[in-house]
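Hi everyone, sorry if this is the wrong subforum. Our group has a chain we'd like a structural model of before ordering constructs, and none of us has done structure prediction before. Sequence below.
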Amino acid sequence: ETQQTLMLNDLRGKVKLQVDGQLKTGRDVVVGALLGAEEFGFATTLLVCLGCVMMRKCHDNSCPAGVATQDPALRKCFRGKPEYIENFLRMLASEARELLASLGLRSLREAAGRSDLIEMKQALDFYKSARLDFSPVFERVPGKTAVSETGAAREQCFDFAKITPKLAKTLRDGIPAELHLDISNVDRSCGTALSGMIDRRFGAEGLPEDCVKIHLKGCAGQSFGAFLAPGVTLDLTGDANDFVGKGLSGGKIIIRPPANVLFDPARNVIAGNVAGYGATSGSIFLNGQAGERFAIRNSGITMVLEGGGDHGCEYMTGGRVAALGPVGVNFGAGMSGGLAYVYDQTGDFDLKCNLDTVDLESIEPGAADEAELLSLIEQHLAATGSGRAAAILGNWENERCRFVKVFPVEYKELLERKA
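Answer:
Right subforum, don't worry. Here is the predicted structure as tokens:
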């Protein structure tokens, strides 16, 4: 029953979770939990388990370990196995369990927020931080017990609490349904649990298009529509945080501001960073701008937005993207497939685009590219009522010349060989 105190000799060196975001050991997991963490991500550590040697070559398709490349010769170098990750996580969990036992705790849930079990043994040596007061980091909020709150929150996620109970007939027989709900930024991964249930019942093909329409109002939390299944449409009036449509798997996501806003949606951000990350199929329509790294590792979705931040379409291998407004620098880095259409109003897109793997082309009248781009803009207008899309379509003869087609070199060569 005696609880030992976990001593931290050097906060900077020991609590790596607070320094670089990369978890290395079971000790880091336990310290993070004691400081209040309830979830943990292992990121690059797992890539290293699979053979990543951190060559920083992801963007130029020349990864020597065969991890981040489309080159068949380099992919043969990949030696990773799922068992390597399993072994790492089992050893990490074993170390974490030993530390928890030494503290008299039975689980990470019990450890969450127990900052009273952490104690600073000595101040940091670095002169700039020697006089810093770390007491607020270890302060506990009176009357708050992370154990009970955490368990209740996970059991009552947004999907299970508000969506799936109202879709019993749909989940059983595929009967179409439509819902109207409010959402807030604590409601994360909206639609993900629902998609899992659809996949188990109907398989990867899911449901017919727009079989389930969910109209939402408010600010959605992270991973809105992650892994969304075919047949599900999330129509959000408001805005959303990072990772909108992460791993999108056939569903449709629409985000637009309220009808009575006084600002120009095309000049304001409506979705956070990394929208459409790793998506494989489906569509995303954003009546506004997205943050950085939109549509990275996109391999098959249609995405229309009205502007975005840096590193758009990074490592993209398939799908279609249309940006109806300005984008940031390093667009298309490592892009090896799919097509992107970017509205270049200022005429300097070539300075923002990473030209290592892509060519830039104009949209010729009457060409297949023009028909495809027009179709994307029309779909966007129909889904969101975008004023930006309406203005472009209404003056198409003059606006067409402002669009630039981003065409991956290898993809172009492949199409030429097939032709």
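For your construct planning: The CA atoms of residues 26 and 91 lie 8 Å apart. The longest strand covers residues 212-220.
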